[in-house]
Design a protein that fits this description.
elongated, 22934_t:CDS:1, about 55% helix, RGS_sf, 2 domains, RGS_subdomain_2, mainly alpha
């Protein structure tokens, strides 16, 4: 499985000084610690802003707020415990850490749960949600174009990693890999024609990439009808296995793919996996029951694919643009 990495730190901390570099005045270097601390905090804030680290789930902001408030309340606990003991009968010193716990609980649990109800929708109507609500928007058409273009998709993967959504793009890449395996099983004349690569890759027929936002919508990408596994994999991840492979709608599930589909579930849907995606419990239970009962289907991951596209579109595409 491919690993994505982004360098967020400078390559070197050694900055050469030119002969004309002025030295700071002695009074500036001997200033009080509070002023130096404030200047350093402003520098850290500027560096974080310049790097544009804006994750999709607000983890960075949550950690920063908890760190700052927690440090302040810890200091106040020490002062209250040692300096003003006569006030402990009215306001206990442990009330300060309690403020930090309440704030952390609000940021990490209360607000996400409230947002989940605010933006919730019925998972059984997920396909209709994509067809009626997203597909009509020009921005979602741009999203589909980015996923279908190899060069833009590479840039988009870097954006998803910066937003802490690495598992979402890896899900789509592995889904393309499953699509290729199904295509190979559905074309007996091509068995042995294609050896599965170690990592999934996208290969599009059209290589004329247009990067501007205006021309992205009018770019016509023609995909030929699928004839071989190499052409099946050229269909973008916005197309399901059944949509890309006509025979997948009526052939029985290939027995040799059970291990691959089970591995896919263990990687992205199993709650105990390191790359588990936050799917709804009903969806995960349905797929788990199908696997436990041996009722494998080629369309068993379609709801998960649709929800992955939704999570990517809602949480990262605005930042990518």
């Amino acid at each position: 499985m491919a690993k994505l990495r982004i360098s967020l730190m400078p390559e070197s901390n050694n900055v050469p000084l030119s002969p004309i570099t002025p030295f700071s005045p002695i009074n500036e270097r001997m200033e009080n610690p509070a002023a130096r601390l404030m200047r350093q905090l402003k520098k850290w804030r500027k560096n974080a802003t310049d790097r544009c680290i804006r994750d999709a789930y607000g983890l960075r902001n949550e950690l920063m707020v908890t760190l700052i408030v927690g440090s302040f309340t810890f200091i106040m606990w020490g002062i209250w415990e040692s300096s003003v003991p006569h006030f402990k009968n009215y306001f206990g010193s442990f009330m300060f850490p309690w403020i930090t716990f309440i704030l952390s609980h609000t940021l990490s649990i209360t607000i996400p749960v409230w947002k989940s109800y605010k933006n919730s929708f019925d998972i059984s109507k997920l396909a209709t949600f994509h067809d009626k609500r997203m597909s009509r928007s020009k921005k979602y058409e741009q999203f589909e174009k980015v996923l279908a273009d190899p060069d833009l998709f590479k840039l988009y993967k870097a954006c998803a990693v910066a937003c802490f959504c690495t598992e979402l793009v890896l899900f789509l890449e592995e889904y393309q890999f499953l699509k290729m395996l199904v295509a190979k099983c559905c074309t007996p004349s091509n068995k042995g024609f294609l050896i599965p690569p170690p990592t999934p890759k996208l290969h599009l027929v059209d290589t004329n990439h247009i990067f501007t936002e205006e021309t992205l919508l009018i770019k016509n990408t023609s995909i030929l009808p699928p004839l071989s596994p190499s052409i099946y994999i050229s269909t973008p991840c916005t197309k399901s296995i059944v949509e890309s492979i006509s025979a997948a709608s009526w052939i029985p599930f290939p027995y040799e793919l059970r291990c691959d589909f089970r591995t896919f579930y263990d990687t992205y849907l199993d709650p105990n996996s390191d790359l588990a995606i936050n799917f709804s419990g009903s969806m995960v239970n349905n797929v788990k029951n199908m696997i436990d009962n041996g009722q494998f289907e080629l369309s068993m991951f379609e709801n998960a694919r649709e929800e992955t596209l939704t999570l990517l579109y809602v949480n990262t595409f605005e930042k990518f643009l």
